[in-house]
Amino acid sequence: MNCEVCQLRELEVEHFEIREVLRCILHTIVFHRALGLIRPKDIDLELFDITYVQCGEKEVEKKIDEKIDQFISWVDKHPNKKSQICLSFYEVKSKQPSWFTNKIERLYWEQWYINLNVTQPAKSQTIKPHLSKVLVNPGEASDQERGARRTLLEASVQEVLFQIIKFVNEKKDHVPPITDGVLYFPFEITIPSSSDSAFGMDMIKRMLQTGHPTMLS
After folding, report:
1. Do the domain assignments include residue 217?
2. What residue numbers bound the domain in which 168 lies?
């Protein structure tokens, strides 16, 4: 089965920005792969001048929030590390029953890799005594730097959203047939493993790309 992969551009975020950024990106992807009679809901980000759309489905919101909570817990244990989150869409197929089991397998047809570099905020620089008269407001430069960084991140998030829309519009042939009564395609979100080993991440990717069943959802 043809599985399309989209690597989204890396975003450099601080810890307090993770939840909003991930909600925005994950919900945008799921919304653009939604089916049926969904009730779109516009959401304004608190940290950025960006509005995105959710499906308006409680199950989707719960699933995404739970995974974001797990990811933030992982970040707390592994500070200053680049990380990758994978959102995978799949079909459920029944394998030929054997004597002992009737196996269900997931056939992955699309994967989105969200790349984050979570950084620690820069510490305020100590002002030397002989410069205190020159700098009327010692915190002004720091505020300006943070404002510039926030503006840059906002533009980067916008670029990621445009990247998602472009991919969805260009890649359509691999999307499976629509099933009656289904509001959105089944999906799972994979976060870095607790062992934080490169080998572990490679194994997860390999499982996803080969379409083998996984217990990570």
Report:
1. no
2. 4-210
